[in-house]
């Protein structure tokens, strides 16, 4: 669980950095990288939810 949370935090930092580059600096190449990070975050957050629900049932 700790490893998954670390991965989520790292991916969120990537999204944060890339989205700021896109919006503030106008770096168009940052857009696809930010979108890719959101897809990865979605997968990781679903996994977190699954693990969290399993642990709460114990």
Describe this structure in words.
By secondary structure, this protein is mostly helical. The chain has one domain (1-57). Helices cover 88% and strands 0% of the residues. The protein contains 2 helices and no strands. Helix 1 (2-25) packs antiparallel against helix 2 (30-56). The mean pLDDT is 96.
Helix/strand-derived category reads mainly alpha
- What series of H and E elements makes up the topology? HH
- The CA-CA distance between the termini, in Å, is 15 Å
Average pLDDT figure: 96
Enumerate the spans where pLDDT stays under 50 for 5 or more consecutive residues. none
Structure, briefly:
This protein is mainly α and 58 residues long. Helices cover 88% and strands 0% of the residues.
List the helices and strands and how they pair.
Layout: H1 2-25, H2 30-56
Helix pairs in contact: 1-2
Organism: Flavobacterium weaverense
Protein name: Histone H1-like protein Hc1
Pfam families: Hc1 (PF07432)
Question: What are the defining features of this structure?
Answer:
2 helices, 58 residues, elongated, single chain, 0% strand, mainly alpha
